[in-house]
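Loading example: each entry is read as two labelled lines plus one structure line.
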Amino acid sequence: MAGKLEILLLDDEPIVGKRLKPALAKIGCNVEVFEDPRKALDRINGKTFDIVVTDIRMDEIDGLEILEHVIRKSPRTKVVMITGYAMMAVAREAMEKGAFDFISKPFTPDDLRNVIAKAAQALGSPIDSETATPEEPSEPAETR
Amino acid sequence: MPVVTLSSDSDPLSREIAVRAATALGYDYVDREILKAVAERHGVPEADLHKTLEESPSPFGISSKNHARYLAYIEEATLAVLLKDNVVCRGLAAHLYVRGISHVLKIRILADPKKLAGEISSGRTPSFEKVSALLKRRERVRRRWSLDAYRVDETDPSVYDMVISLARIDPDEAVKTIVETTGYRKFKPMTYSLKCMKDKALAGRVRAALMDRFPDVRVQADGSSVVVQTKALEREKQKRTEIIKKLAGDIPEVAAVEVQILPDIFRKAAESFR
């Protein structure tokens, strides 16, 4: 893999993408944000991402379906699940289906950056999750 | 890698399997050996800690207050070990208080009833009826103990991820099965499950620190924030809140303490009759 990490971020709450996109851009990632799972799936069909970050509970298509689709299309892609309704059974199901990691909301941008750094490491392209450009505006404490 | 908790109706057999599984996996092994350090740390008799893990509270044994206190000390110490990951844990009742954490593989080992009969009759050959009655009694005692201590029936198979009957599977196969199962993706630690374990461990530390003063205390942790619940009379609220905040706040990992005082209706009623 050369250049920036390509990340697709899917959450039906607009605030999540709005907050996390700049947080991930800070560590040198190209982030495409989607709120509609169908549009996200279309994009995943058209482009291979290094990392997909997806909410689990969404209308119409849930995050586990997205996970299965991504793994089928690109087994190399790391899928990170995020949810405000974390439970052991769902967490185990996601891991069994091939998720790279699972985070419960609320989490801080740092939490996500650390997970992205682990995924980048696993992809063979380590990044520094501590890298932050001080001139950028301050980010929210946590994402709900 | 996952954490493995092993519970069984046979102490020697489960020990053998737990040690062999830990060795095969390259994991640490933890059991009641840690109780010596727990006793020293809290200045309580080690024998009472062992007794707490075996017997329900009673007027002739461990009092309810001490039972809860000793369990809190044991939980605190066990959770601190489990937090490190790559551990096989046996004999500390962890399967009852480390619940809902996806990377904890909970296993129940059921001994072969014939061997168990030999174990409990110390080599003598009592009648089938006598052994049957003894085994049933033992199971009732354990069931009662787990319900008293954690409101969970430890003889219920649904508590576990896997139940292995040594009447049908020999110990070698049991060890092999445990080792293989730890490799399943579903038991892999993840950010969420590691956080759950961390929260549980911190709650355990805070609870152990508060138990001497407030035996009814309930604690939940989320990151470095803890919520403490206890019962008190209206006039005790302020003082109690201050003490709890001080004691919990002394734990370095705690950044914020919220104290929720619930009305102690029984004491209130008792006072109103005086």
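Residues 219 and 228 of chain B are 5 Å apart (CA to CA).
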